[in-house]
Amino acid sequence: MEILPGETAGFSGEEVYEKIKQALEDPKSALMTGAVGGMLKKAELTLGKSPNSKDSDQQKAKEGHALGVVPNMMLLSLLASLSYGYM
């Protein structure tokens, strides 16, 4: 899981990590008494290594081939026209 900065700026990743870790360790924290508290019971928080450039590239969304879209659109058009009785 990756947690990215939210609306409040100025916190480092280490500060966010420590705050979440403290909340997980405190059974009376808002995190543990809230909606996900039951799922997080006995949860462990660890720091992962920073991704290298190869890892980062593999995690990026890739663009699909436009050629694959055309046959799918034609198939959908055919099915729609058959269902409405135009053919």
Largest sheet: none
What structural category arises from helix and sheet content?
mainly alpha
- What integer is the average pLDDT? 75
Cα distance, first to last residue?
50 Å
Shape: elongated
* Number of helical regions: 5
Short description:
The protein is mainly α and 87 residues long. The chain has helices at residues 13-25, 30-33, 37-40, 53-59, 69-83. The termini are far apart.
Any overview of this molecule?
This protein has 5 helices and no strands. The protein has 87 residues and is mostly helical. It starts with 12 loop residues before the first helix and ends with a helix.
List the helices and strands and how they pair.
Elements (H helix, E strand, L loop, with lengths): L12 H13 L4 H4 L3 H4 L12 H7 L9 H15 L4
Based on the model shown, name its key terms:
single chain; mainly alpha; 87 residues; elongated
